[in-house]
TrEMBL record:
Keywords: Ligase. The keyword Ligase applies. PANTHER family: TUBULIN--TYROSINE LIGASE-LIKE PROTEIN 12. GO terms for cellular component: cytoplasm. This is Tubulin--tyrosine ligase-like protein 12. GO terms for molecular function: ligase activity. It comes from the Eukaryota. It comes from Nannochloropsis gaditana. It holds the Pfam family TTL.
Length: 395
């Protein structure tokens, strides 16, 4: 077994034996999209028998009810990690990163919106609301976005400038994340808000990969901060539908929702047109480096963080047989082009990614389970964090 804090060496002994390169690995999944997209028969094949599989790549619901064979003396790879619940829950992620900023004598993290997790942060919210603001009198009032802490996917979200409205939503939901709304997001050529869904592959505390390609999700109505438009989520949300399948559990991008499908822009089209929308400003490559720098800092912080269970380190409570593909949602500020972290989804939908990049599942599995797989020609992953080869931790 690999030592603490190091990426496991390949091949790894599993259940007293080693996976030889010549033997394909059996994969159990309950995700239809993976059944139809994983196509590397020389390396992986699907099985209907979870107890006999080498790899379990399944939904959180499966892992909630399934006892891994590792608990019975047999090692299995699995698409889950001990800390995923902490980063997938918006409130827990905010508390984790805020705590880290205080230990580093930072008042705030510039790429993390100011947030309150209710009800526990309600006294702080009330105190801050009553404290005279340093904002100039001519500045527009603060706008807040209200979200459930977990699995919102465009549902039960509201924008408001009213404290009574926040309290009503808290009473109705019982638990609520209240965050400063980025009122000046970068806009696409038609004046619509967009966000970027990045795909990050967590292999160990010391090896975190990101894919070069990403999804661009676009709101369905032109952007406006007029008071009468605050309740129109078609203007403010890019994920207004509920997804039903994915390489991870479903998130935005599916069939039902607020009356309109999630609209996307091809990643290649986006990159080609982006610079024409920002003449004389920083090029896209520079913005992408800033996004990568933000995510590198984010996952490095999480990796060093004290977890919520007995002060253990979150990422370093690591199962060397665990893997995770997470989706990270990013917004750009219109004035500065600075990236802002919106949320991390521990089980992202990849159906849209597959429509643009049909071999994405093959890339994920090769990077996750084949030695040096992410270095192969055609594999779009590269390291955000590579402590074994520090010079490779950049795009």
């Amino acid at each position: 077994m690999a030592s603490r804090g190091r990426a496991p060496a390949f091949p790894i002994p599993v259940g007293g034996r080693t996976f030889p390169p010549s033997r394909p690995l059996s994969v159990y999944t309950d995700m239809p999209v993976l059944v139809h997209s994983l196509d590397l028969p020389a390396r992986f094949y699907l099985t209907d028998h979870a107890q006999d599989a080498d790899i379990l790549w399944a939904t959180p619901a499966f892992f909630a009810s399934h006892v891994p064979q590792s608990a019975r003396g047999r090692r299995q790879w699995k698409a889950t990690l001990p800390f995923l619940g902490e980063v997938d829950d918006k409130c827990q992620l905010v508390h984790l990163l805020t705590r880290l900023s205080h230990t580093r004598s930072q008042l705030s993290i510039p790429w993390l919106p100011r947030s309150y997790c209710l009800p526990e942060d309600l006294p702080r919210l009330l105190d801050d609301w009553e404290t005279p603001s340093s904002r100039p009198p001519s500045a527009p009032p603060s706008t807040w976005i209200l979200k459930p802490p977990h699995l919102a996917r465009g549902w039960d979200i509201a924008l408001t400038r009213s404290l009574p409205c926040i309290l009503r939503h808290l009473q109705a939901s019982g638990r609520l994340l209240v965050s400063d709304y980025l009122t000046s997001p970068d806009l696409w050529l038609d004046g619509h808000k967009y966000d970027l869904r990045m795909y990050v592959l967590l292999l160990s505390p010391s090896l975190v990969l990101i894919h070069r390609q990403f999804r661009v999700r676009r709101a369905s109505q032109p952007y406006s901060m007029a008071l009468e438009h605050l309740e129109d989520l078609r203007i403010h949300l890019t994920n207004t539908t509920l997804g039903l399948s994915g390489l991870g559990q479903a998130d935005a991008g599916g069939e039902e929702g607020h009356g309109c499908p999630t609209e996307t822009v091809s990643c290649l089209d986006f990159v080609e047109k982006w610079e024409s929308l920002h003449p004389g400003r920083e090029g896209w490559e520079g913005v992408r480096r800033r996004i990568d720098s933000m995510l590198r800092e984010c996952f490095s912080l999480i990796g060093r963080a004290g977890g919520r269970e007995g002060g253990r380190e979150a990422l370093h409570v690591h199962d060397p047989y665990g893997r995770a593909l997470v989706g990270v949602d990013v917004l750009l500020d219109r004035a500065t082009l600075s990236p802002h972290l919106i949320e991390i989804n521990a089980s992202p939908n990849i159906s849209g990614m597959l429509s643009e990049r049909p071999g994405f599942s093959n890339e994920v599995f090769s990077a996750a389970f084949i030695e040096g797989g992410w270095r192969e020609d055609g594999n779009g992953f590269y390291p955000l964090i590579d402590q074994q080869n520090p010079n490779e931790g950049c795009s």
